[in-house]
Design brief:
Strand content: 25-35%
Largest sheet: 6 strands, mixed
Radius of gyration: 17 Å
Number of strands: 6
Order of helices and strands: HEEEHHEEHEHH
Distance between the termini: 34 Å
């Protein structure tokens, strides 16, 4: 299904994946999204956390990696993200829910935003192509690089979601991002 036709659906069912800076594991959420823009409404249906093994966590947190190690870790994390997604897809099917799309922020191994860095950049791993192939569902990813490509900092990515989830004209809400 094309992304434009998914966007036009009255409601979309999305699996969201991420691995935070604490490197605890892969977090996977199943949400229902209705509407767009200011009328967007999101409902959490299910959430699971899949812990990393101690050896995987050590590898992710390694201070230095060569290109081969980084490449291998990208593939292995892609497989772990796909496994977590497939478990959520099985849950969704048991609830008679068809998944429209998977969104993966991957795992950030380097984030060098402007103007702090002369050559700004960001790198997230957990190969999205592997997730798409294993799950047979379209995958969107690379959110940080896209934000930086249009002049943003690539982080935090949470403010829009906070606005959608907590914006109420009849009350004041404050959100605090405490990180990983």
């Amino acid at each position: 299904m094309e992304l434009h036709s998914i966007r036009r659906k009255e409601e979309r069912f999305v699996i969201g994946l991420m691995s935070g800076t604490s490197c605890d594991g892969v977090d996977v959420a199943l949400v229902r999204i209705k509407g767009t823009g200011p009328e967007l409404a999101i409902k959490l249906i299910e959430f699971k956390s899949h812990p990393y093994s101690s050896s995987m966590r050590r590898r992710i947190l390694a201070s230095k990696m060569d290109a081969y190690d980084l490449c291998a870790l990208n593939v292995e994390l892609g497989e772990l993200f796909a496994k977590a997604s497939k478990q959520m897809i099985r849950f969704a099917k048991s609830e008679k829910i068809n998944i429209d799309i998977i969104a993966s922020s991957g795992h950030t191994v380097a984030h060098c935003p402007p103007p702090k860095h002369n050559v700004p950049g960001t790198l997230q791993i957990a190969e999205a192509s592997i997730i798409a192939q294993r799950c047979k569902v379209p995958v969107v990813s690379n959110f940080r690089p896209r934000d930086m490509a249009v002049g943003g900092q690539g982080a935090p990515l949470v403010p829009y979601a906070d606005w959608v989830l907590f914006n109420r004209s009849n009350r004041t809400t404050a959100c605090l991002n405490i990180g990983g």
